[in-house]
Amino acid sequence: MRTSTKLSQRRGRPPSYDRDVALRAIRDVFWDRGFSAASLDDIAAAAGMNRPSLYGAFGDKREMYLAALRMFSAESGREMQKALEAPTLREALEAFYVGAIEEYVFGKAGPRGCLVICTAVSEATGDATIRSALAEMLAELDSLVAVRIVRAQDEGDRCAAGDPKVLARLATSVLHSVAVRARAGARRSELLTIARATVELIVGPASDIAPVRRARLAR
Q: How far apart are CA 194 and CA 117, in angstroms?
């Protein structure tokens, strides 16, 4: 029985099957259309797989969506971690926001915002698993930023006084708003203005920094 099942699964997948490539294509369908509006035909076509192959590789539509969320969260988390490694908190937050905004305003069909914020929120009410995954991803991002703020405070870097967890939630809450605004069609310059104001709220005014650095979020 085990042998026949494995053979059946292998027969269901195309010879050129690459899980990561296929999952990225699936992710993009969900990112553009959301969970409910993404049809299985659309997903299969994007992945280059027929439905039996798709089910064999990823499970049902909900499992595909959760896998896409996890991929997005892991990849974006690595990029944000890299941005937050900048020498000062100001530079770290600037890189954090600029990198995210560049991603949020991109999309073949129009600006997509954030896959998690712009698609999972609407599904969370009726699906406990998606709600749990959403909460976990939000908490991971909060923690990532809080750790960087703690480092800034410990090093005597410029940073508003206060609980690092609260400041981190402020920073990430603005990021979530920026994602929604991007999907709604806000201009890149508008999003950067919001980001710049948030950085100054957390770090302090930029009036005493070099013009080149000050211009970074104004572009």
A: 17
Helix axis angle for 40-47 and 51-58, nearest 10°, is 80
- Determine the Cα–Cα distance for residues 93 and 75; give it in Å rounded to an integer: 18
pLDDT digits (tens, 9 = 90+) for 37-87: 999 999 999 999 999 999 999 999 999 999 999 999 999 999 999 999 999
CA dihedral 33, 38, 42, 44 (to 10 degrees): 120
Alpha-carbon distance of 38 to 32, in angstroms, equals: 8
Tell me the CA end-to-end span of the chain in Å, nearest whole number. 61
Task: Identify the three-state secondary structure at position 196.
Answer: helix
For residue 45, what is the DSSP state? H
Is the separation of the CB atoms in 81 and 45 below 8 Å?
Answer: no
Q: Is 14 helix (H, G, I), strand (E, B) or coil?
A: coil
Give the Cα separation of 211 and 206 in Å (integer).
Answer: 9
